[in-house]
Write a structure and sequence with these properties.
The complex is a heterodimer. Chain A is built from 15 helices and 23 strands. By secondary structure, chain A is an alpha+beta fold. In chain A, the strands form 5 sheets. In chain A, strands 1, 2, 9, 10, 11, 12, 13, 14, 15, 16, 17, 18 and 19 form a 13-stranded mixed beta sheet that branches. Chain A has a 4-stranded antiparallel beta sheet with strand order 5-6-8-7, with helices on one face. The model of chain B has no long low-confidence stretch (mean pLDDT 87). Classes of the chains: A alpha+beta, B mainly alpha. At the A-B interface, α1, α4, α6 and α12 of A face α2, α3, α5, α7 and α10 of B.
Chain lengths: 531, 305
């Protein structure tokens, strides 16, 4: 049957479509109006505006992978929150690029002979965003809050193991009394979680620090705006406003940087670095990090309860080719448990020899030992591919490998609760930039991050001694010994340290990316060229 | 009145069932919110302190009973991840998702009606047959692929639409098209087959023999009867749309319920997941209820059911 349209029919079709569209449009407008917008009514920016200057304010729009959860440095353990908190709260001490402590809220420091009492002099004339002046009492209150066990704050363990008591010496002098000598104590004070918080009657929802930016507006999930704090002790920052937008898809982040919808994209995934860098308006900057991606070996079960099997696994994995081919050379291959850039690093390379292993296993005459290799999927750049490569290298060495991939939220607790794994891909970044933080959490007997089940009194003794040793040269020697122990015992196989990359519009300058994975917009500025 | 009460009771029972199933599924999933909250650097003691503070150390049946009794009073609890009330978290995100879904439905309707009618009326025309191939291609492609392709084409190459964000209505056009395309094409196919069936029915010959124009036959006599199955299908699709919104919102950086659910599951933020599932289930049920009402207006035979 064939039905032919007449004019009237076409009109009717049009009319009914229009009516339906109008109805849907009305629904759309109502729900749009019902959704909360910005409080100042200055929403709806133009579609694509070539960055940065509107209403005489210099604004930096920063696309980030995940949104922050809490603007309380003492209670936030996720990277996006730490990044925001880094700009709202100053710490007493900061680290420079050589991981040496430099002044921030504290201008001078000294310690007693033993190294268990540290005295810090505070910078005069510093005020919090709410107008409260900073003095020894407010600093003590901030530390007491974090240390209070009743509050159960997420970052308490950053200092609870070291600090016995914080004492006000005079208006601008605080004293930290420690349980025992801690050589890298200033590095600990530079930890992102130790921002000084104004605690008198201040809830985390109205955060007040002394940092160069204060919270302007936060629409959770959409955007977080930091405004320049004019009264900052370093002077007002060159940028008036930082707008953080959460853009979870890596390729969308890269495209929005290219189209100019954002000024900075962080991070840029290794797969995208080369293509984004080709765009003429965009610059990609990469930085080596202190993150160590490693293979933890389960020492409680065969085959890796045997030292020989662990050494074999370590010799069998070609880190250099993993770094070159799977991470596009955006990683440094690693042979020691302290990443390059961390204080205490020492260059050691062990040769890769795929054939030695095979013959050893054949000589032993047994069946191929089974290895269940676990890895997160989507946590570290290229982690699936790395797990497959590691599995293939272990197969070459004569193991019978089965790979299991996990969603991150399930991964760590599954590793802790299950005996079903033999090798696990993990990552660790020492946020103080110090060897103690690199080794203790993942290798000390009974540490929560010590997934391998490594328990070596000799190793524990060496790093305990190193943590107390105040002479840097002697300390370095001790970490050399500790590293030798790990190379000897192989509880973990270091794989590589990934580089981290961010992209910026060419007009944005002064953004710094540290090897601790902290990105710093405090000294960012915008050049006139494209405004 | 009794019918209304009855369907309200059905509605609540279904919602309670949805919450119970989600709660069990979330508990079944490996992973521990206290551990995720405290982070990798925390010691064992810190994780336990966080667990106590969150009330996660209590037995599961008690946690569930507490949740239900609070939810019945309109309190959906506090997000583990952010510490804000779940109601506020949902309120700040549902606008974006409902806007996206309505625009996607509008787009789908705008695609489905003309294409469905045309292809039933002119099944052998070249235009219809080529559209068939395009439709088949769209049906076979996952929504995230379609979304990324649209971004590459219309944002990066032609620079017509923004690639991500939700600040203006223009930000919603590409994602709505990506999300609605599948529904539009699928509904067009349902409409085509039901319309083709009806066009072959003898009563239309009666209409034609009484002198009705072809247009009148199509619009007045055939279409209303053909619309009911398409509408029902359309309403069922609203659930799938909310599922597709999860991916679309992630790719286009829209801060809606879909992305919120993904984040909350990754964090094992039980109260947030349950709250969002509750809201989405209610929306899907409401959409189906609305479709039933509309259908019974179009088709009197459905009124008694």
């Amino acid at each position: 049957m064939r039905v032919v349209y007449f004019r009237a029919g076409r009109k009717a079709a049009f009319a009914s479509t229009v009516r339906l569209l109008a109805l849907a449009g009305a629904i759309a407008i109502v729900s749009f109006a019902a959704s909360p917008r910005t409080s100042d009514g200055s929403a709806s920016p133009p579609l694509v505006m070539e960055a940065t200057r509107s209403d005489d304010k210099i604004t930096l729009r920063i696309g980030i992978a995940a949104e922050p959860t809490r603007l309380d440095p003492h209670d936030a353990s996720d990277a996006p929150s730490s990044m925001i908190n880094f700009h709202i709260y100053d710490r007493l001490v900061e680290l420079n690029e050589e991981m040496e402590p430099t002044p921030s809220l504290a201008t001078r420091w000294s310690r007693n002979e033993r190294g268990d009492v540290w005295t810090l002099e505070l910078r005069p004339g510093v005020v919090f965003h709410d107008g409260t002046p900073l003095d020894a009492r407010t600093v003590k209150a901030s530390f007491d809050r974090l240390l209070d066990p009743r509050l159960g704050l997420a970052r308490r363990s950053v200092i609870s193991g070291f600090v016995r008591e914080v004492v006000v010496r005079d208006a601008l002098t605080v004293e930290f009394r420690l349980y025992e000598p801690v050589a890298p104590f200033l590095q600990v004070l530079a930890h992102d979680a130790l921002g000084i918080v104004a605690t008198n009657g201040t809830e985390p929802s109205t955060p007040a620090g002394t940092g160069p930016f204060r919270l302007g507006e936060w629409i959770p999930g959409t955007r977080l705006v930091l405004e320049a704090f004019e009264a900052h002790w370093r002077g007002a920052p060159a940028v008036d406003r930082l707008v953080f937008l959460s853009i979870p898809t890596a390729s969308s982040r890269a495209i929005m940087l290219e189209t100019g919808e954002i000024d900075v994209a962080f991070p840029i995934e290794p797969v995208h670095v080369a293509s984004v860098d080709q765009s003429p308006e965009v610059v990609v900057e990469t930085s080596a990090t202190q993150r160590l991606v490693y293979l933890a070996l389960n020492m409680n079960h065969p085959p890796f309860n045997e030292k020989e099997a662990r050494r074999l696994a370590s010799r069998a994995i070609d880190r250099a080719s993993i770094a070159r081919h799977l991470l596009f050379s955006l990683a440094n291959p690693a042979w020691v448990p302290i990443a390059e850039g961390t204080w205490g690093y020492r260059a050691v390379t062990t040769p890769f020899d795929p054939h030695s292993g095979q013959s050893e296993i054949e000589r032993s005459g047994s069946n191929r030992p089974r290895v269940s290799l676990w890895s997160p999927a989507g946590r570290y750049p290229q982690d699936r591919a790395v797990a497959q490569a590691v599995g293939a290298f272990l197969e070459l060495a004569g193991f019978d490998v089965e790979i299991r991939l996990f969603e991150w939220g399930a991964y760590l607790s599954s590793l802790r609760q299950s005996d079903g794994w033999n090798a696990a891909v993990l990552g660790w970044v020492p946020s103080t930039g110090d060897a103690d933080m690199a080794l203790r959490p993942i290798l000390y007997s009974g540490s929560r991050g010590n997934i391998s089940g490594y328990a070596s009194p000799a190793f524990d003794g060496v790093i305990d001694e190193a943590a107390r040793e105040l002479d840097p040269d002697r300390r370095l020697e001790l970490y050399g010994k500790a590293v030798e122990r790990i190379i000897e015992d192989v509880p973990i196989v270091p794989l590589y340290s990934p580089h981290l990359a961010f992209g910026r519009r060419r007009s944005v300058e002064g953004v710094r990316l540290f090897s601790t994975e902290t990105i710093d917009f405090r000294f960012a500025h915008v050049t006139g060229a494209s405004m | 009145m009794r019918r209304a009460l009855g369907s309200a009771a059905d509605f609540l029972t279904a919602l309670a069932g949805v919450v119970a199933i989600s709660f069990i599924l979330m508990q079944w999933l490996p992973g521990d919110p206290a551990e995720i909250y405290a982070g990798e650097e925390a010691s064992f003691e810190e994780v336990e302190a966080v667990r106590r503070r969150m009330g996660l150390d209590r037995p599961l049946p008690i946690q569930f009973a507490q949740y239900l009794s609070r939810a019945a009073r309109g309190d959906l609890g506090t997000s583990i991840r952010s510490g804000r009330p779940v109601i506020l978290e949902l309120r700040s995100r549902m606008g974006a998702t409902f806007l996206l879904a309505s625009l996607a439905l509008a787009f789908a309707a705008a695609v489905a009606l003309p294409i469905g009618i045309m292809s039933a009326a002119h099944p052998r025309s070249t235009l219809v047959q080529s559209m068939d191939w395009v439709g088949l291609a769209i049906l076979s492609v996952p929504v995230y692929w379609l979304g990324l392709t649209l971004i590459l084409l219309f944002s990066l190459t032609f620079r017509l639409f923004p690639a991500g964000g939700d600040a203006t209505i223009a930000h919603y056009l590409l994602p709505a098209a990506a999300l609605g395309a599948h529904t539009g094409v699928a509904t067009a196919r349902v409409l085509r087959s039901s319309l083709a069936d009806i066009l072959a029915k003898p009563y239309l010959n009666t209409a034609r023999s009484k002198g009705a124009t072809q247009a009148r036959t199509l619009w007045k006599h055939a279409l209303p009867n053909a619309l009911a199955p398409a509408l029902t299908y359309f309403a069922l699709e609203s659930g799938r749309l909310l599922g597709g919104a999860v991916l679309t919102e992630t790719i286009f950086s829209i801060n809606g319920l879909g992305r919120f659910v993904v984040q909350s599951i990754a964090f094992r933020d039980y109260p947030s997941v349950l709250g969002a599932v509750l809201l989405m289930a209610a929306a899907v049920m409401a959409a189906n209820l609305a479709a039933d009402l509309v259908c019974s207006r179009i088709d009197p035979r459905l009124r008694g059911l």
